[in-house]
Model the fold of this input.
Amino acid sequence: MHDNIVDRSKDISILEALDRVLNKGVILTGDVVISIADIDLIYLGVKLMLSSVETMEQLKSGRSIKEIQ
Amino acid sequence: MSENKILFEAGSFDGISEEIGKLTSNEESRLKLTPDNADSGLAKLVLTLVELIRKLVEKQAMRRVDGGSLTDDEIERLGATLMKLEEKMEEMKKHFNLTDRDLNINLGPLGDLM
Amino acid sequence: MEKMIYALLSANTDQKEVISLLAGRKGLSGADLYLVSTAEMAVVACDIKRDDIIANSYNAIEYASVIEMLAQHFTLLPVRFGSVMESTDAILQMLERNLDDIQQNLLKVEKKYEFGLKIFCDSEKLKADLKAKPEAMSKKAETADQEITQSIYRDWVNKKLKEHRLEEMLLTYVDSVIAEIKGHLCMLQAVSKFNKMKTSTMIIDAVFLLDMERKDALIGAVADLQNQHSSLTFVLTGPWPPYNFVDFTVK
Done:
């Protein structure tokens, strides 16, 4: 039970960090290589990560955007 | 980043991380136009805009009704129009196999359209 | 070879210290992190091939953790993940072109950190609670209930009207919570930004910019608010680099 709460805290911390680094901060216009569509895919990964351990394993293996598509 | 960034949290975590995840978009909410899905992609785009306008009209209408400036007759006609519009929209969604969730476009950093 | 940019710093920053902090860290593709600086400003960058920029959460978090580590020591402007520039020259020119904006933004966030507050509730339950409150049963709301049924259209309007009023009540309630938070914040001299109703259960998503010494006071304020609002769940996170307080577009 305790471990579960620690994991949840970490999940939320990661999501909060991702939300910031992907959506906020200085944008160097014209030079952003990650499109909004790609970012969606990262989020999709994060959402799945929260819901299934299986997907977590896939994320760990670090599949690239191209492979996912 | 192993650091725990939670400074304060009183309730249970149930549902919260899922909720934060919801903020982020999902694949279905993206408008993906390719030669193969041009038909359904276009239907989705058009219906999304129609639904947005329909909701805005409905909201504005309710504000007017609430404001009390409309006559009974006007309210009656307004209700007839909006209700039919809503029914028509449901038919179209069914026809193109779209859900409410489909009829929303994620605008990236701008959040969801609706 | 492209340059991936992590953060913008003032040139007044102790550059030797930055370099020593960067020494053990690697950038996304395993390349070294380094400083590119002009007389006024500096950026932290690493070399990367465009094809090597893989957009996954692992890389995004790695990227964020470099910014995080630097932000613990210096005032900086975090750069969004995925920002690359062609060459060192391009970076220098970009710094030159945006000198004023960058300096103003750096000044605004100097020695300050970002904190995030998300407030959750079951909005359907909250609506039900609001409906049950005596003051909510205003004259107008009652008339809608007692309206003599004239037609299915009128019924439909009445149904929609009730939903509309509940939504308005929810918004009024959310505004009152925001006002309360702002009341606590003015004592902390925080800059704040609020978003309402991002999802049906996240009624408020706010970010604050404040001095580190006021962190405990902020936690205390949030704990007080939580005590007063048992139906809401408050989640406070931080300290973060000032991601939400950078408001300019690089020219």
Observations:
- Chain A touches chain B at residues 5-6, 8-19, 23-24, 36-37, 39-41, 43-44, 46-47, 50-51 (CB under 8 Å).
